[in-house]
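Deadline looming. Please check this record:
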Amino acid sequence: MDFAIPADLQAYLDELDAFIEAEIKPLEQADDNIRFFDHRREHARTDWDNQGLPRREWEELLQEVRRRADKAGHWRFSAPRKYGGRDGSNLWMAVIREHFARKGLGLHNDLQNEHSIVGNFPFVAMFETFGTEEQKQEFILGGFAQDPKLARRVAFGLTEPHHGSDATHMETCAVRETRDGIQGWRIDGEKMWITGMHVATHCAMFARTGGADGDARGITCFLVPNPTEGLEIEEWMWTFNMPTDHPRLSVNKVWVPDSAILGEEGKGLALAQSFVHQNRIRQAASSLGAAQYCVDESVRYARERKPFGEELARNQAIQFPLVELATQCEMLRLLIFKTAWEMDNMPHEEIEKTISDKVSMCNYWANRLVCQAADRAMQVHGGIGYSRHKPFEHIFRHHRRYRITEGAEEIQMRKVAAYLFGYAGPKKGRFA
């Protein structure tokens, strides 16, 4: 049993660090781009007069970073080689994401909008597994394209205003309808929190096409072009951490042809579940890295700060809370890396059947831990920690969302309970 970081992975981390120092840090410091990360960050990123959407300058800067990272061969790392990637594994991605987040805020990795020089592409796996050849060519290659004419950006249209975690009671529905001699579907309903619709070329819109309320089957995924007639952004939801790209939208008599279906008719929820494990383990690693950053910064500050003529770190009230956080970081790191390694060593369809509970453990605990660590960092730093001149308030406000999104922690704990008590997973039927 070997717990060491593989030598080739460590070499790649060193390569990424060198790229950040040579290409990304100078860009971060140029033209007052640091305003997107210092105390001005929320205002610099947010176009308050344009419904709170991200400022154009902010998104253009991130696009330039992705262009440089792609040119250097890093951005597509996690994608299959046939699409220009490196077949990056879950373990490598977990280690990389923790490594990046532990560096703190910066252009190399800004999770507020899922930006990183090593990208995460859940839609690639979804299209690769469920898409037609035409859809793979259009949406996978288009997802990497920088040319606006070829680019494809897909938003994930699952959540509804009245049905957050429970997608089985989806009210958005689709019925068969032929227009101009072409067979297709008319979609009606509402969606909410559909992130990225301001730049999306398509929305992966989930709608009930059969079955009854509460049935997992009978929900279908449609690739709806954006904009399209009948698809309206009703409002942009302002959030704890701005800017926003999370709208509430209405769908009124939107029509798409049969070719817009992704996957099989009626099996859309299985499709939606196909990539949550990848997303959750990588996001857990990012939260862990951010938590560790808060601990590291608090330790450094406590050694430097000398109230009453003695290091702050001498006080047990400072030491013990940080000891507990550091201990949890160490234990969680082992579980995340072990779970990611197990994911890499089994068929994709086996993950849900055998270790989905471990993925949920990693994710919900990491998201809770980073909020605790950010709060403690504020306390250790005192007034300056509460100010926006330190990054802890931003870390707290951003990562607090992940205790709700990506599967609320209660939903993930319910998954763990189902495996623990034998209602699902390997123990199913053991207590019958």
In short: The longest helix spans residues 276-304. The chain has a mean pLDDT of 94. The chain has three domains: 7-122, 154-262, 272-427.
